[in-house]
Write a structure and sequence with these properties.
4-stranded antiparallel β-sheet; 3 helices; 4 strands; HMA domain-containing protein
């Protein structure tokens, strides 16, 4: 848990914006790796962190880039996982 928190703080300070998606139905490591794979293919995404334990997906965007909530939801749903909420952290 401490490693996860440190990673989150570090990543949040390196990129202009990020989101945290609270998800439901992510039950195994295969689910998590599927999300990492699909989001890493997006040009806007710098990195992604998936936590099975907390049922969250953190996506960090490249400077000046982002994905809208509709696209994020579509990509997550495409992996058979439901989205409960998306919280944005837009740093300037």
């Amino acid at each position: 848990m401490k490693k996860f928190m440190m990673f989150s703080l570090l990543m949040g300070s390196l990129f202009a914006s990020s989101i945290v998606a609270n998800v439901e139905g992510m039950v195994c490591d295969f689910c998590a790796r599927g999300l990492e794979k699909v989001f890493s293919k997006q040009d806007e995404v710098a990195s992604i962190k998936v936590s099975l334990e907390k049922s969250i997906v953190e996506i960090y965007f490249k400077e000046g880039k982002a994905l809208d909530d509709k696209t994020i939801t579509k990509l997550i749903l495409g992996n058979g996982i439901s989205v409960n909420s998306i919280d944005r952290n837009d740093s300037k």
